Amino acid sequence: MSRSSFPEGFLWGGAIAANQVEGAYQEGGKGLNLADVLPGGKARLRLLTEPGFNFEMDRDTYTYPNHEAIDFYHNYKEDIALFAEMGFNVFRLSIAWSRIFPNGDEKEPNEEGLAFYDRVFDELQKHGIEPLVTISHYETPLHLIKEYGGWKNRKLVDFFERYVTVLFNRYKDKVKYWLTFNEINGAVHFPLFGLGFSATSEETRLQETFQGLHHQFVASAKAVQIGHDIIPDSRIGCMLLYAPTYSYDSNPENVMHALEEGRIFNFLCGDVQIRGAYPRYSTRYFEENDIDIEMEEGDLQTIAEGTVDFISLSYYMSRTEKKDKTAEEASSGNLIQGVKNPFLAASDWGWEIDPTGLRIALNELYDRYQLPLMVVENGLGAYDKLEEDGSIQDDYRIDYLKNHIQAMKEAVRDGVDLIGYTAWGCIDLVSASSGQYAKRYGFIYVDKHDDGSGTQERRRKKSFYWYQDVIRTNGENLEGPAGE
């Protein structure tokens, strides 16, 4: 057998987010957050993109699957035992801000919320699993949204600083790896998710979005500095939603358009958080789009002094761009639009499948920044069928993940410093983009359905045993256990 391309000590595991798995949305002193008022089903994506969402629940019209989710809050011991059985040595999870500060602006934290995550981290430690913690993952406390306008308001920097200081002090002996904001650049397309506000209008969207992002850049940089001070051996990273951007053809106009679109989406946030300064190309972009960022004295110095230690990314799809695309050419399935790529197949939800794009992404990021990389989200949302014998034969998921892990191998051979991989939705959860149980990602099947039915019983899918063998061989064997 040839030597594995993954280094010794490579971090293998899975990833979830609090708002998509925990449930117990009003237990343990938790306050309401953004995810609690986002409905499931087709309405969710519309509400995410249209101005004017009112942040109120409408139970007569919608369902709210995040309220129960898969009840990780009460089932975390069973779930972590299953992760350990697969061989995880890392588990990416997020902390629900409103479990720690129910409104977000209190002076003192909620002890019940802190104690819950103590129990989770202790359980992970018992099984030898390293926690990788996202501090803010699409769940801004609802009070901060309604009372302050979300991240448009500078005051959220101070509230976030108080929040992270509590986390670092409480968990300094339990958590080494941290991420500040999940998919921070996703706000360019979906400000509601990451910034906690719905744009006033399409005309004001970019101004509001980049003002909110500036506040997050400052907050993230402060968090890095606070974390390094409280936990000297901590490693604190950024997290990007990465989609390498291709030109539709070799027309130079389309090539330039793809470069501009990809640079703003893929690199601007990374340049600030990793290099510690706004990139020069942002000046022209801000001028041409009437974006005038209000800064306080010392902001740029804070950003310069609070750069991250490593880069994490989600990778689901690439993006193909054409300057003058028609409505018919626009790719409706891809989360980040563009035009349809004729060379790629798509998932059940229309997301184009491009394993080579992951190799491209890793090379682009490492060539640009020369910092360690970690793929912390990658997976296939699909319809899973429970067979008569109780099995789930998800060969399509195995094929997807096998090809993407092979692409990571190639990137490592290219010279990329890749330190870890956490497959998204290692256990079935509520999809962020669609608010559905039916869009399943996990190696572990959860008996819960969009109509509210289900026992919450956990079952190992075929991919469970496949990934177990991938981890056991440090990525050397991607074909599955012997005998299959």
UniProtKB/TrEMBL annotation:
It comes from the Bacteria. Its EC number is 3.2.1.-. It is an enzyme of class 3 (hydrolase). InterPro entries: GH, GH_1_N_CS, Glyco_hydro_1. GO terms for molecular function: hydrolase activity, acting on glycosyl bonds. Keywords: Glycosidase, Hydrolase. Gene3D superfamilies: Glycosidases. The keyword Hydrolase applies. NCBIfam families: PRK09593.1 (NF007158), PRK09852.1 (NF007356). Belongs to the glycosyl hydrolase 1 family. PANTHER family: 6-PHOSPHO-BETA-GLUCOSIDASE ASCB-RELATED (PTHR10353:SF122), GLYCOSYL HYDROLASE (PTHR10353). This is Glycoside hydrolase family 1 protein. It comes from Salibacterium lacus.
